[in-house]
Amino acid sequence: MIKVGVIGFGFSATVFHLPLIDATDSFELVAISSSQAASVRDTFPNVQLFSSADELIQSADVELVVITAPNDVHFSLAKLCLEQGKHVVLEKPMATTGREADKLVRLAKDKKRILSVFHNRRWDGDFLTVKTLIANNQLGDIRFFESHFDRFRPEVRERWKELPVPGGGVWFDLGAHLIDQALTLFGLPQSLTARCLALRDNSKATDYFHVMLHYPDKEVVLHSSPYAAGPNSRFHIQGNKGSYVKHGLDPQESQLKDGISPKDPCFGLEDEDSFGTLNHGSHRDSIETEKGSYLSYYEGIAGAIERGEPVPVDSEEAVRVIKILELAEKSSYAGKTLSLSEVL
């Protein structure tokens, strides 16, 4: 069994990581660091509790540390883990700057430890469906790809993700997912043009983005708005053989919030009324959404540690996401298109 320690006991840890770790047969959760001692003990009475992340990293008998702390401490905590000889899973984004991310990759290689980032939305059912449609050439050559992660949150909330801190704002939060999916499908663009704005009253961090990735043969649009009351667009993909339109979000997050186990047969299954539509001129087909599987990420991490299998999200892939996040902010500030040659 791989002994695991988790840093943090907030939304990300309790909704995503802890249930997935518990459902992965190769893992044993042995330690958590959190200031919420009572909540941790109520939920995990047999797990060793640490009051600080540094104490867990330096003292806990663990092989893998999962970091769900705020973005601005990802680098320092991951660095300490690697120096202590621990494998590391980082909540996305990997770090707040490309320079930090590069340093972590080099350190992980030097220490021969696994460093991965939880880009779990590679295993969204709708994204898996899109990958299949493209792989099977059902859309032909892709010319336009639009990916949304919209929400209806017109009021600013008191939480660190909405503060003007390094790595704060919705672009570093949701944008990281959309960039990772786009790079998984199409590789790196040549350039980008971005608008990253604070649209809500009293907003101090980016809460809206509209980012265009420019490829030689296609345009990719990544978008998020806090004013989308629904039904929300998810994908709109156009190729020379047809188009695919999808609304609604993958159900796994909602299922995890409701306490449904990732091992439940219904986990990751989407309702039929949320299926996307494949259009070929006047002919339309409802396309069943593939079953999502966030559990596949942690099963992949276990395979990488135990058997040397490929890491499900390679750290160098995550570095590219960070550098595009940074470049888009520069593009928005400058009001112009910027080449990826500036950062890669």
Can you walk me through this structure?
- The protein has two domains: 2-118, NAD(P)-binding Rossmann-like Domain (Rossmann fold); 123-291 and 325-338, Dihydrodipicolinate Reductase, domain 2 (2-Layer Sandwich).
- The protein is built from ten helices and 15 strands.
- The protein has helices spanning 11-23, 37-43, 53-59, 74-83, 98-111, 125-135, 170-186, 252-257, 295-307, 315-334, and strands at residues 2-7, 27-33, 48-50, 64-67, 87-91, 115-118, 142-148, 191-197, 208-214, 219-224, 233-239, 243-247, 276-280, 283-287, 338-339.
- The strands form two sheets. The chain has a nine-stranded mixed beta sheet. The protein has a six-stranded parallel beta sheet with strand order 3-2-1-4-5-6, sandwiched between helices.
- Strand 2, helix 2 (37-43) and strand 3 form a beta-alpha-beta unit.
- The chain is globular.
- The model has no long low-confidence stretch (mean pLDDT 96).
> What percent strand?
15-25%
Instruction: Give the % helix.
Output: 25-40%
> Counting H and I runs of at least 4 residues, what is the number of helices?
10
Output the helix-strand order: EHEHEHEHEHEHEHEEEEEHEEHHE
Overall pLDDT level = 96
Structural class: alpha/beta
Low-confidence stretches: none
CATH 4th-level superfamily of the largest domain: Dihydrodipicolinate Reductase, domain 2
- The radius of gyration computed from the alpha-carbon positions, rounded to a whole number of angstroms, is 20 Å
CATH class of the largest domain: Alpha Beta
Q: Mind summarizing the main beta sheet?
A: 9 strands, mixed
